Amino acid sequence: MADFFQTRMGQKFYEADVPRIAKALERIADALEAQNRSAPSVCPHCKEQPATHKLDPFSGQAVCEPCHKALREEWDSRRPR
């Protein structure tokens, strides 16, 4: 029995699919880098404190620690139990 890389499917995978996956990953990385460069340095909710790596559970935006805590509590209160 032939090894996978010796089959037509294996050749297609390594010669076409893997390069296409690599290019897609590069595009994703470029988009994330661009998003991080344009990320606000001030919390969009309180407009006072610097934004952290914490994310608003509703919008996905970076927010400050106090706003994150308040938004997280609101998020948890809306979740069905």
How would you characterize this protein structure?
The chain has 81 residues and is mostly helical. The protein has a domain at 35-81. 54% of the residues lie in helices and 0% in strands. It is built from two helices and no strands. The longest helix has 30 residues, at 8-37.
Blueprint of the fold:
Elements: H1 8-37, H2 65-78
Find the structural class using helix and strand composition: mainly alpha
Number of helices in the DSSP assignment:
2
Q: For the report, how would you describe the main beta sheet? A: none
Order of helical and strand elements:
HH
Radius of gyration: 22 Å
> Which consecutive residue ranges, at least 5 long each, have pLDDT under 50?
none
What's the rounded overall pLDDT mean?
A: 86
Helix content percent band = 40-55%
**What oligomeric arrangement do these chains adopt?**
single chain
Terminal CA distance reads 54 Å
The count of DSSP E runs of length 2 or more, i.e. the number of strands, is 0
Anisotropy-based shape: elongated
Strand content: under 5%
